[in-house]
Description:
By secondary structure, this protein is α/β, with parallel strands linked by helices. The chain contains nine helices and seven strands.
Amino acid sequence: MLTSIKGRSVIVTGGSKGIGRGIASVFARQGARVMIAARGAEAARETVDSLRGEGCDVDWTHCDVADWASVREMVDHTVEAFGGLDVMCANAGMFPQTKMVDMDPAEWDQVIATNLRSAFLSVKACIPHFEKAGKGRVVLTSSITGPVTGFPGWTHYGASKAGQLGFLKTAAMELSRYNATINAVMPGNIYTEGLQDLGQDYLDTMAASIPLKRLGAVEDIGNAALFFASDEAGYITGQQIVVDGGQILPESLEALEEI
Ligand code: NAP
């Protein structure tokens, strides 16, 4: 099952850390050739070295996903290095937490550019290559925050993540002429390096609010992305899947206590 990814050329934006690192690891361990794209060299090199240590075929390239020239260069570089492009995992994102009353409009613009404009740019840059290959796959990392839930301080973030899903529907229609699909994974609370800094109390409280009683692992998101990228998912496009351990299901605190 899902063996079709072996030898495929895959870009993971934001693959140097967190969920992106999880996605890159899942694809690379299945035998894909993975290009990690990020701005910071240190984390990217560390991830590449670690995966190469496992025998994976991985490299990294510098990219700012909010910048068109940089995104085009990332895709062109990958095509040259790997001889083509099969899968784009547009995952890079940022989530500063600022309530509207304190939010500078420039912060709003930066979050929308990094999380939503980047989705458009990442897909646009793939189109000539998908057209040439007669196939392609895109997987977006959205979120439950925005499309399903709200959290004070994340109006811009929620708007960007809901916006990705709006983009997805029409993008799926436009990409179908190249036999390419686009789908989105919507993570709940995933255990990343960044979350560790919030302390054990925070992690325990979050885990208690999730029916499966644990935060997600980055590989949980990687596995969902892998499915969407596989040949086996070739007839699925314009869709989204929540991967959250049931976090959005309880109607009330009492409902959680009934479990
Ligand atoms: P993270 O640990 O902070 O990692 C973010 C990654 O994106 C890093 O590799 C970072 O590298 C890269 N990045 C950020 N801005 C970039 C830019 N302008 N250009 C290129 N790369 C950029 O974040 P994460 O928690 O893994 O989140 C990854 C994605 O999952 C995001 O889209 C986020 O919204 C989504 N998500 C996360 C959670 C969660 O619980 N963690 C839940 C729902 C959704 P550089 O900074 O070096 O560029």
